[in-house]
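Worked example 4.2. Below are the chains of a multi-component assembly; read each line carefully before continuing.
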Amino acid sequence: MADESKAPQSPESSKPAASGPSPAPPAAGAPASPAAKPVAPAAAPPPPVQVALDSELSRRYRERFGAAILDAIEDRKQPILVVDVTQLLEIARYSRDTEQFDLLEDFTAVDWPRREKRFDLVAQLYSIPLNTRLRLKAALGAHEEADSLSSVWPTADWLEREIFDMFGIVFRGHPGLKRILLPDEWQGHPLRKDYDILQQDTAWVRENLGIESGQ
Amino acid sequence: MSVLANTVHDRTLQRPDTILGADELVINMGPQHPSTHGVLRVKLKLDGERVIGSECVIGYLHRGVEKIAENRSYQQFAPYVDRMDYVSAVSNGLGYCEAVEKLLMVEAPLRARVIRTILTELQRIASHLLWLGTHALDIGALTPLFYCMREREEILKIFEKYCGARLTTHAFRIGGLQYEAYDTLEKDVERFCNSFEARIQEYSDLLTSNSIWIGRTRNVGLLDAADCIALGASGPVLRASGVKWDLRKATPYAAYDQYKFEIPVGSNGDTYDRYMVRLEEMRQSRLICLQAIENIPVGPIMARVGKVLKPPPGEVYHAIEAPKGILGYYIVSDGGTQPYRVRIRPPSFINLQALDKMIRGHLVTDVVAIIGTLDIVLGEVDR
Amino acid sequence: MLQGVLAFVQTWWVELLCAVLIVLVVPLIAGYIVLVERKVMADMQARLGPMRVGPHGLLQPIADAVKLLIKEDLIPDDADKFIFWFAPVLSMTAALTSMGGIAFGPWFQVGRDINIGLLFVVGVSALGPFGIVLGGWASNNHYSIIGAIRSTAQLISYETTAGFALVSGFLLAGTLKVSDIVKAQYTDHVWYVFLAPVGFFTYLIASIAETNRAPFDLPEAESELVAGYMTEYSGFRWSLYFLAEYANMIVVGAVGATLFLGGWLRPFPNVAWLGWVDGLPTLLLAVTGVYCVMRAGKQPVHVQVMFMWAVALVCFLVALIFGVVEFAHLTSSAAFLSQHPVQLLRSMYDGLYGAFWFLLKVSAYIYIFMWLRFTLPRFRFDQLMRLGWHILIPLALVNVIAVGIMLALMSSLGWNRWLAALLTTLGTLVVGMLLIRWNDKHAAAASGSIATDNTQVEDSYAG
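Applying the procedure described above to all three chains together yields the following structure tokens:
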């Protein structure tokens, strides 16, 4: 998604890649992201971090799902497909069945509070027979629900519980969505950006541990 | 493949009934228990002596490491990573440093990569030794623990000489290594490797053909390949089920592409196979170490990275084959000095999901053996 | 009344003395057996064991005893107080009383002429499981009762095996009386282990299970869910159970040594030219004394130096006693022989040397227990029961028949006893193999421990 790379750049747009310590020779790739970057005069041209992805794989996905594939990027040589969250379950099923991505390596979320659709669901897929990786990203609004991927990959069970625990994203169709790392009665979702690093659910701590939390 | 996935889905996602039948009993195991290897709570639903359902309660060791990562600089976060899987800290450090290096698009120099490989393989041996000792102890063999600790002591001494710490080593830096290999590193590693083959044979003599050991571990905790992959289990658990897949060969990192080694594979997917796979992995790690120390290239040990790390905005996912399974780091950078998001894909967390499936139908006495065979570290499960 | 008591003491003073010694000394000995076990364990595990308390940890049992005695006496709230108190007492009593029937050498025996000898020992020690199950029940903790019932089930299952194995020994000895059994081995010129080895080894295995030792120690294992009958016991009560376990070990060792290993006879008791073997105890003790003297100088702390000298002194003293007694025994015709002290010394020969050899055999038996504990993993409970009922009891039964056949062959057909023994032992072993194979097939068919519903899924990634 193009705006995902634009939004965080605004506060740091002064020195995005000038301080990037990469010794990789600057190539002449056409990066999508530096479109918003001002050219830093004293620095070498920024290395191609993100390029548009146009591979067999992305073409097959685009063919199958058309508009649901919102963007295809390659970031640091890792393929990413940005998809529409309403089609995520279908795309997941297609990935597992047809594209042979049988292992859901990871499923997590990232919080971009200043964006309109706040969360990014990120699924890292791996194909054992083909030895390839793919990342699926889907933007999700603050109060939207997503479909559970546990019917496609059972490993998503606990992974989605953790996303729910840390971000508050509800997954429809999950066999038993409750908190996993934090106590069941905890209030708040810590990995959201508006949850301060020193914040705790002091009421829970007081009731259950009997101490006044220092923070 | 879809047919397989559906059957697995039906079996794995059954929750224990909330209404207990007349003959059913719920036993609580943990969080303080000598054999759960950490603060793990398992609620077992029993029918007489057989387990018919289970539920894991975790989170007792949750320290919010991913949140902390958003408030530290990249280098400041590196020591935190050791404390997740505290039994094999060096691997954690390797994964993190390589992930950030990918983010920065630098590559550590070859000498650094080779020394990293040696230390990581030593750490793999140490982690498997600890696993073997405690697993054997749970099943009742009292002696292998002390033999394994004796070997592990040698490895920890090498770590101490190298970076000053035995357990939470913070051995690697982003971009390479901070410390040059000390004078006698090669000799120490060689001496260890030379004595280690006989020691592995000792453990093997005690356990491999012991009919009591076989009786306790054969056909216990079965997990076939399709279930493993569907549940995301990785590492020796997956290899024991017959899937010959190791990230060191599939997507080589550090200096693994330079060395010849085998991937041990089991056939049954039971506890005995996992034991054999890990034993064989120790042998292969020893071979890698021997090959590596023969020829450590000269050169710099640190790539040219600045003091202040500000990776270009973007994200990266990097996974390594940690002793417990696939350890993945997903790091999102917004261009600042602190990571925007660090997600750690913990192998123990995902392997532990398979516990419910593996335990069903077994006797209560086997629960301890099955938890042991998954080789979980609660620091990693809870982060 | 007082006259009656005095008369009683006068007739039975030896037996009473032995009984008092048993009650006083066995707990101390059991404590030292624990220390030996810890040292042996440490040796097998490449470490040193207790080293701090006393020189080389020799005062460790004293420290442990003191610690246990000063602990708080906790009784669970709803526990049955009388039974809670009584259960360990019962265990300990059963163990110590059964020791009364054992002869530690020709002199030292409480029940001197019991005609049912070893049967008394086995029968009284069978009261031990009562103590266990009552203790588990009285703890008012359902994990304790589960552990106690498991332990009791194990004990009574293996008692049958032990009984049958002993029967094969009784067939050979022809008597139950302890002194007569040893005499029979003397007159037969052979230890019965060589005539009925299957019986001995079956008894060995069964006795490991009888005393809840590894690999049969599931009821006591710490890493199991079910905590065992000793959970709610702490301090002195727990030490009673513990001592009862080690006393039981001594009892089963003694029974095995008596019936199969020749009791208090020295190796090759009838072979006259091996009489110099009698000098071994003296030699051993003297060598130990010399070793202590050599190491005394190297001790780091003065107290330890003194202690080593004291141990050396004790070794030399005992060696002297043994030597003098042996000398008196050997010199059969010399002028000064009619003097009383020498007569006394000569008569001590049997008792002292007999006791030495007997204790040596019991120690070897217990060492094998310890060796097995630190080498083998633990059996799961169903495997343990299957081993007992499916393999060992049939084997022991067949062994009894085999020994009977052997005796019949020897007496009515006049066969050489070694030939008969060889044949019948081989036959029993063949039966044993068949049993094991049948059991494996049976166990595999019952799918071991899983009620599986694993469908065989095709694995396209195998290999």
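Take a moment to check your reading of the output against the notes. The two ends of chain C are 89 Å apart (CA to CA). Chain C has 15 helices and no strands.
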